[in-house]
């Protein structure tokens, strides 16, 4: 049957069995994987690929392609079996499943050119899909569709309901969630079992179109996809399926999750043996070009006068508005705190490229990732503290290799009265521990503006930390600041000690250096605005020249500026290690003025001078 | 009117105005705060305190007390005004709002004995309330009620829908969400404005009882509370309110969020001036004692034979089941991966104290915190990678000073084929950066069992990291392991170098030490199973004795074991710093066998021997 064009035939059921067989085969070859979770969705996907998906496998970057996301990423054997049936990969590559060096990873990642986003942390695929669908409707303005295969278990994740709320409210008719209701989770029955009505009621309440079907009835599946295409709202197809469908030994059985079939050969026989049915997936009709918001123009950042006082969050908002004017690919996302983060300045300047995600940080990050899939350049901002809400999404964005610019405002105890719930005190640690991330923490307005622009082209996840209160402008307009840079603000040939700071503590360090200077102690001061990567050479030079380093940061003692400095000396540095003293926030803060907070936390200029003196006494 | 018993009178409206006045007064005194968000909910709370709340302010630990959570924590001025009206605090303390040292923090925390949980990160109060309500229904088996005041904006958070799903499914009739639908968020109108029906439809779909009312009509409020008490399901009271109600200059106006009133004196006059109405909140009727699951008994941990191979996740499950037998206060929570984390062993042994939260990690953590409020000893487990999903909840649990035991399985690249989405590679960094946390990472089964027991009484957040694959048992049964400890596994007077490892890399370190020994290189090996706090003395001794340290960990390079070791030398250590070389995971892993993963990541025994040799060549 090699090469038979099933898209013209009715043998979709046969293709479904081939997909099952291939899922069983590759899982058996690897000795691991999720064949039963693949088998339940095989007919759903066979019908989609044969009759409804519009995709050019020879040109994955075609802007008119539909998008398919396996939110249940553990069904990767099914996805790879589909790729094989579509002629995108060979049977040999399929059977390299889960082996070293193979693109056939345990859960799909964009190492495969047809995969938009990495999945495997459940409840994320639909939110990412909402992002792509938003891009399709409101940015690209193209009619591509976004198909998301969800598991039933993952509908327990709150992020799914953030996605449902956003998609329902925006009437994303280009979005279809295909829910594989196979009733069995990792360790037994799901909460709602085969009650597809329970899910339908919930999604209808969020203004979705819902269709309940038998997920193994090709005609019902086909009709549901057609109805979804005709809907003016997002559609959820709630498909009752059987986990392990087609093989009696595993069908609808507990304790068959996430393991190869015990008797793969018998199962393959039961399914009719190995086939080689090919699907000719129909490519999209080429239509209009993606929409563009005008032409690029030179960047004109706001300029701040040295000696003025300006909050870095203000400089961020103004810089992003300016960047949006210069670059029509820049978009902004807010989680209903734009008035505080100053994302509102971008919203006011570029309302068509601004997305209000309301208080749903996970969906905000997912939407940004989804827009990035389509080549847009998203900046997403909320309080640094509340980005912790979306940490798993950031983690998975890194697995995707996504390009993402995140801005966390209200960093540290310096926010003052609002108290610890609003203080970002772990954000440096969290973002430094993201693969290939960049972490930037400016201390003045011109530096902030320069870094907002520098982030735009970073090919990974770039995080900018901003401050609530005004800080003195110490750098002139137009000074250049690059990722991995630093600034030596005080320096002499006779420096006794080095103070390394970033953000608000730079100003404390400068005051301390002045005070120490009056006592004849010469302190070098480094503004380590790039917390990751660190300007290791400047730190090493300081260690060599002064032998003593005090670090000071508005952050918990773990994982921030101090640890970034120490790490320099664990990376193969030659010569003696310096004496290092780390100042950071140790106690749980409460309410107080910003000045009281810095003093109480032991990270103000007085704490710095005392630390320097204690280090010099050793 | 001092001391008038409003609970008998009908002057609830007058009390509402007093609460508004006091919210305005304390915000004016501090120059910050959220009076308008307090004013919208004043009548709702005045009615609750006067007629429905059962609470003994003189005995906050009374097990029969109702629980009141301000999920909209920024309405703290209202909460404190209520405390004043109830006679729990003085007017003077009220007016210390948001000042250094005051208990009247910007957002409520359990520094106040009547506050169960810290709020201020929106969307968390209801999930915490679900935890307390679960405790009331299924653990304590007492009729106390849980009242949660929510904002409308926060209903966009996915965590709210995780809470609704859990509460609806469990038919938590003891839970009432009072939603203050004032239609204005931080930066403008909310998504659904005053459409209380939009919220009602959604919550009904999640099987809640819903009641839509005018939130300023005392009779409607009163009837709604009465109806909630009679419901056999959780109830949401969706109250249409006016932000800034009672003061025309701010009522229902945008740009009045989170700031004191411009003219407080006029506003207070408009509201009828300062009053001193007292509420006699009715204490609970004393009823039966909280339920107990039997009597404590001696702990009998499983014993593992040295030389056997056992996965630490298995040892965790068995130890927790044993701990549950010894301690009737221990409860277990799962996010539908109990089969993998081995929480299932606890579930099988103690089904009445086991809570299946399905794939909703935020709600799982929140439920654990809520049960902890009532004195239960919760252990919650999922994959280490998926605990990132609940990082904001862990952060806020630390602000609450909660006692919480978290277990993250499937740590690091050592899991093998499943790939990066399932690998916890940032968990050490994330959990080390939690205030007062403890981070434990055992390498063998007996050590795991001992640490599971040691965690039980830690008065803060204790995190245990477990591994998927089998590891050799190297410690005898009954060996003692304590928080802040370590084990020196190889040591001599002539050690040339120290290798510091934890978890799976301990075994790599031992193999490396053996290989090095054959070449006449003597390596000390430290099992740093307590990653926070670190056994600083043992690390310092090693630095003094050997001068060279190699750290090796199955984690990103940031924030883990290596940084914990470096930090020892930044905390006022005397003497020369050692040479340190950190081995950790640098590249993004894909699928491979566990052995291939360790080798590819450069953290296996061969990488350790090479690192030692390179350090010795310096």
Which features does this protein show?
homodimer, about 625 residues, alpha/beta, Rossmann fold, 3 domains, seven-stranded mixed sheet, five-stranded parallel sheet, 23 helices, 19 strands, about 15% strand, elongated, disordered N terminus, magnesium ion binding (chains A, B), transferase (chains A, B), EC 2.2.1.1 (chains A, B), THDP-binding (chains A, B)
What does this structure look like?
2 copies of one chain form a homodimer. With 618 residues, chain A is of the alpha/beta class. Chain A folds into 3 domains: 14-270, Thiamin diphosphate (ThDP)-binding fold, Pyr/PP domains (Rossmann fold); 309-472, Rossmann fold (3-Layer(aba) Sandwich), CATH 3.40.50.970; 487-617, 3-Layer(aba) Sandwich (Rossmann fold), CATH 3.40.50.920. Helix content of chain A is 38%, strand content 15%. Chain A has 23 helices and 19 strands. Chain A has a 7-stranded mixed β-sheet with strand order 8-7-9-10-12-11-17, sandwiched between helices. A 5-stranded parallel β-sheet of chain A has the order 1-2-3-5-4, sandwiched between helices. A 5-stranded mixed β-sheet of chain A has the order 14-16-15-18-19, sandwiched between helices. In chain A, strand 4 (209-214), helix 9 (218-230) and strand 5 (235-240) form a beta-alpha-beta unit. In chain A, helix 1 (12-30) crosses helix 3, helix 1 crosses helix 4 and helix 14 packs parallel to helix 16. Chains A and B meet through helix 7, helix 8, helix 12, helix 16 and helix 17 of A and helix 7, helix 8, helix 12, helix 16 and helix 17 of B.
């Amino acid at each position: 049957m090699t090469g038979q064009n099933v898209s013209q035939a009715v043998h979709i059921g046969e293709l479904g069995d081939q997909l099952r067989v291939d899922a069983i085969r590759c899982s058996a070859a690897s000795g691991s994987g999720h064949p039963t979770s693949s088998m339940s969705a095989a007919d759903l996907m066979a019908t989609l690929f044969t009759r409804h998906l519009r995709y050019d496998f020879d040109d994955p970057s075609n802007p008119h392609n539909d998008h398919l996301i396996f939110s249940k990423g553990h069904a990767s054997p099914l996805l790879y079996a589909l790729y094989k049936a579509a002629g995108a990969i060979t049977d040999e590559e399929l059977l390299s499943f889960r082996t070293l060096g193979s693109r056939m990873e345990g859960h799909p990642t964009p190492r495969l050119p047809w995969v938009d986003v990495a999945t495997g942390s459940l409840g994320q695929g639909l939110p990412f899909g909402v992002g792509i669908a938003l891009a399709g409707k409101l940015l690209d303005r193209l009619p591509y569709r976004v198909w998301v295969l969800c598991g039933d278990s993952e509908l327990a994740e709150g992020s799914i309901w953030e996605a449902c709320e956003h998609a329902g409210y925006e009437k994303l008719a280009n979005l279809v969630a295909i829910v594989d209701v196979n009733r069995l989770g990792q360790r037994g029955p799901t909460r709602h079992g085969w009650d597809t009505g329970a899910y339908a009621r919930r999604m209808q309440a969020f203004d979705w179109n819902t269709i309940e079907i038998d997920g193994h009835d090709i005609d019902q599946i086909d009709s549901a996809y057609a109805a979804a295409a005709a809907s003016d709202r997002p559609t959820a197809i709630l498909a009752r399926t059987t986990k392990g469908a087609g093989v009696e030994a595993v069908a609808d059985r507990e304790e068959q999750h996430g393991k190869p079939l015990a008797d793969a050969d018998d199962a393959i026989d039961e399914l009719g043996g190995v086939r080689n049915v090919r699907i000719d997936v129909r490519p999209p009709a080429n239509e209009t070009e993606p929409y563009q918001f005008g032409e690029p123009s030179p960047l004109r950042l706001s300029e701040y006068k040295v000696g003025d006082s300006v909050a870095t969050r203000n400089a961020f908002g103004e810089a992003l508005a300016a960047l949006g004017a210069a670059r029509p690919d820049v978009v902004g996302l807010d989680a209903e705190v734009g008035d505080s983060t100053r994302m509102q300045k971008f919203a006011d300047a570029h309302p068509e490229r601004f997305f209000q995600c309301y208080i749903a940080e996970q969906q905000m990050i997912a939407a940004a990732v989804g827009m990035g899939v389509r080549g847009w350049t998203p900046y997403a901002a909320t309080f640094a503290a509340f980005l912790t809400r979306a940490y798993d999404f950031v983690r998975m964005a890194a697995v995707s290799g996504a390009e993402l610019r995140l801005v966390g405002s209200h960093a540290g105890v310096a926010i003052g009265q609002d108290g610890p719930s609003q203080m970002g005190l772990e954000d440096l640690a969290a973002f430094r521990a993201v693969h290939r991330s960049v972490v930037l923490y400016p201390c003045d307005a011109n530096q902030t503006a320069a870094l907002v622009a520098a982030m735009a082209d970073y090919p990974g996840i770039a995080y900018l930390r901003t401050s609530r209160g005004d800080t003195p402008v110490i750098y002139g307009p137009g000074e250049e600041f690059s990722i991995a840079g630093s600034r030596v603000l005080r320096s002499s040939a006779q420096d006794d000690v080095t103070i390394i700071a970033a953000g608000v503590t730079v100003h404390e360090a400068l005051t301390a250096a002045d005070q120490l200077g009056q006592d004849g102690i010469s302190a070098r001061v480094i503004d380590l605005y790039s917390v990751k990567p660190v300007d290791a050479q400047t730190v090493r030079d300081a260690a060599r020249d002064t032998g003593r380093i005090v670090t000071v940061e508005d952050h918990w003692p773990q994982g921030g500026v101090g640890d970034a400095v120490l790490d320099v000396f664990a990376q193969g540095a030659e010569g003696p290690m310096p004496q290092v003293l780390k100042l950071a926030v140790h106690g749980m803060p409460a309410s107080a003025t910003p000045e009281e907070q810095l003093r109480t936390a032991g990270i103000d200029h007085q704490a710095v001078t005392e630390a320097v003196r204690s280090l010099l006494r050793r």
